[in-house]
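Dear colleague,

Thank you for sharing your sequence with our group. We've completed the structure prediction you requested, and as agreed, I am returning the results in plain text so they can be pasted directly into your records. Please verify that the sequence below matches your submission; if there's any discrepancy, let me know and we will rerun it promptly.
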Amino acid sequence: QVQAVESGGGGVQAGGSLTLSCDLSGDIDKRVCVAWFHQAPGKGREGIATVSLRSGATEYADSVKGRFTISQRAGNTVTLEMNRVKDDETGMYYCAAGTAVVLKGGRCRTSSEYYRFWGQGIQVVVSD
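Please find the predicted structure tokens below.
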């Protein structure tokens, strides 16, 4: 059993930056993949970044590559640094953990079906 709690959301201007945090607790050893998902208003959840706690490898959706950075920090915390945010990145952000199927190189997949334990989500509003 793994619990995830997100923090750090709020308002940000387009082109600005903010950092989300995911505090993990429970049986972390079996949850080797951690992912961030974005759900825009009226849309489904999209996996945008993953990190393998086993290998340290990261994976990003093309839409955020070069702008967002996922990092594992001390104290079982995983952060998502968001830079040069865009208007369509408004919405809910979810942190999830699981023993997911990995890609070549030890990278975790971004599809939600591979993640079992989810946080409640946190809202981000991007404004002009």
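Summary note from our side: The mean pLDDT is 94.

Kind regards,
the structure core
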